[in-house]
Amino acid sequence: MRILLIHPNYLSGGAEIAGSWPPAWVAYLTGPLNVAGFEDIHFVDAMTDKMDEDQIRAKIKEIQPDIVGTTAITPSIYKAERILEIAKEELPDCVAILGGIHATFMYKQVLSEAPWIDAIIRGEGEEIMVNLVEAIHEGRWPSDRDQIRGLAYRDGDQIVATPAAPTVKNLDAIKPNWDILEWHKYIYVPLNKRVAIPNMARGCPFTCSFCSQWKFWRDYRIRDPKAVVDEIEELVEKHDVGFFILADEEPTINRKKFIQFCEELIARGLPDKVQWGINTRVTDVMRDEELLPFYRKAGMVHVSLGTEAAAQLKLNLFNKETTIEQNKKAIRLLREADIVVEAQFIVGLENETAETLEETYRMAEDWKPDLANWAMYTPWPFSTLFEELDDKVEIFDFEKYNFVTPIIKPEAMDRGELLDRVMNNYRRFYMKKALFSYPWKGTGYRRKYLLGCLKAFLKAGVQRSFYDLGRVNYWGPQSKGKVDFAFDETRKIAKAQWDDWESAADKAARKRAHKASLNSLEGKMDDTVGVVSTESAQPTAAPATEPAAAPKACGGGDQQMSDEQLEALANASVAEADPQPKARAESEPA
């Protein structure tokens, strides 16, 4: 049984300007497959090697696999679909498999536009992939495909989804095979060191409206910090990795485990060999103010903060428990701890104006982060905010859903002007940093790091790859009226996907109505015994004359979860482990 895994050849001028990133999914699938006895596994990184379709076709013909698998986030979905189409053209009898977050939630769309795909893996892939490959190897494919949980496939004109597979409960039991990657290809440009992307946890206990991580991973699970450091130590000693970024959306959620992780790194002397960075929340930085020097001692040198937007109105929309002053203070605390801090701004919603874009620049100047990134709002088609935006989403060319292309057209400006004003922010911010900050301030390491970041920006600028500027024909303010984002307007949402969305919306509406009726009944029952129900007394929507409610935490709560609450959540996740995956009858992923 020969398996070929291919990483799609998609580039957008976003995160890849900082380096070539190792596709961790390949290692995390290959490891369990090896344990199950499948050793003949090959990998082609079409993204890093910048392979065109002819080169991919040649590789498929050379390797002659029985199974071809690939993955896709939303902007790489068409590349992934095309890879599998090429595989079926060359090897009609091979089994073409697609995984990843986009296919998980948009499987009806994908199977409508790419009927040559034999199976979609919905959700975490490790256990489902082993079950699927075993069925193929034993000759039970496709006869037993309806018995494999977590799949979607076409059966004639019908699109079928088997019951959702349980999540992987014991993450430490997954042993990724990092040997499958050619590590000399994966370089972090600012430090000119090999880079890795391990993870400490999966899932998130919060439910930000613009995010999909909590939907995909479904429940929050955290690994043993010692096991994570074992993996990092292997990457350092065996593969010469000198920098890593934790893949977690927010690795500091569980403060106790994060501290243990740092302690283990220090105990093994790893900060002398490898440095690292994370994404986290402003509130976590403020919570851990006294611990920041300790985190720096453990090798943490870069923190990317989701400050998201300059206007507090937008922070409320994104459902994040942060304020403008908190953002400013968190950035200052990180700088004082000698940690490079990057502020992330989301721009390009329908209410964006020249004034709000200028405000983000002024705030970046005031807050003084080391790095700033203005990302175009990208409405993931499976996020809650996408549904709320409704008819404001006009573009369904998912290849452009990449953080650098304005999907939403602001009411007050066209997309070309939006791009130009964002580029103006970048020009001013980094010109000042290059002339007056990076060469002169901070420690020797900080100076080296920031100059390396500047080098990455300049390289991408010269090559016209930054923000995909070359492809959209942007050369400066004089060209803003000639920018062409080349949207493929023939791309539409498939009827099967629309029907699925409408069905889900109907179910949600019925659920809300049922809950409202129960609350009303509870209030009446309380009234009969002289007790006022606080919950039922609250209006379902605040009158227009009342001030808006204060923003809540990501999950809708008033504050971040305590260590004890997080431990209980993780323990509950383990307790729900399902040793008999065919016993439950779920029809959709959570």
Automatic annotation (TrEMBL):
Q: Domain Radical SAM core, which positions?
A: 190-411
Q: Which residues form the B12-binding domain?
A: 9-143
Q: Where is the composition biased (Low complexity)?
A: 537-553
* Gene Ontology molecular function terms on file: 4 iron, 4 sulfur cluster binding; catalytic activity; cobalamin binding; metal ion binding
Among its keywords, does the record have Metal-binding? yes
InterPro entries with a match to the protein in the record: BchE-like, Cobalamin-bd, Elp3/MiaA/NifB-like_rSAM, Methyltransferase_Class_B, rSAM, rSAM_horseshoe, rSAM_sf
Q: Which GO terms describe its cellular component?
A: cytosol
Q: Where is this region: Disordered?
A: 534-590
What does the record give as cofactor? [4Fe-4S] cluster
SUPFAM superfamilies, per the entry: Radical SAM enzymes
Composition bias type Basic and acidic residues, residue spans: 579-590
Q: By what name is this protein known?
A: Anaerobic Mg-protoporphyrin IX monomethyl ester oxidative cyclase
Source organism per entry reads: Rhodothalassium salexigens DSM 2132
Which taxonomic lineage does the organism of this UniProt entry have? Bacteria, Pseudomonadati, Pseudomonadota, Alphaproteobacteria, Rhodothalassiales
